[in-house]
Amino acid sequence: MRDSGCDPPGLLDPGPPAIQAKLLRVLQEKTYYPLGAAKPQIVNVRVVTATNKNLAELVTQGQFRSDLYYRIKVLEVHLPPLRDRKDDLPLLCDHFLRKYNVKYKKSILNLSDEAFEILANHDFPGNVRELENLIEHAFTFCSGNTIEKEHFPAEIRGGSRCSTQTTETQRAGRRTAGTFALIADARSDW
Fold first, then answer.
1. Is the pLDDT confidence value at 125 over 70?
2. pTM above threshold 0.85
3. N or C: which end of the chain has fewer CB within 10 A?
């Protein structure tokens, strides 16, 4: 949160009741106490947040404060998962191509028809983040100006669909792999 600004959406995790109470206080009173401060700091913020949780249900279950829920629910936009809006794939792919061309100083122009078909047939249980990771993965293997199907990981090549039904072991493996990739990316500049 930043004074007189609007940060990009952050993922809202309900968190413990004490944190919810503090957030509500900041939103209502527009003040907070910085760590170690004796005087409150006045803040002028706009909060934009996102969640993959059903907050109304959490309010009913007593896991999310109703007063905080109604304070942050000024405008609600429901965005379906990527698997339900495949028409967005060309725009998203174009966005990620531009992003990673800058990051990796490459000039990849597009995806081959076969590479795009693989993405179009994929269920994306990891949603847009998974698409972004697949494009970045392809960038590391592509030396030309077109991403080919061979540049994608073996588990999604060949038109096989990734089921949205995953076991807890698979989820744990993905979390571990994602954590490792995040650490590797944070420590390297490639």
1. yes
2. no
3. C
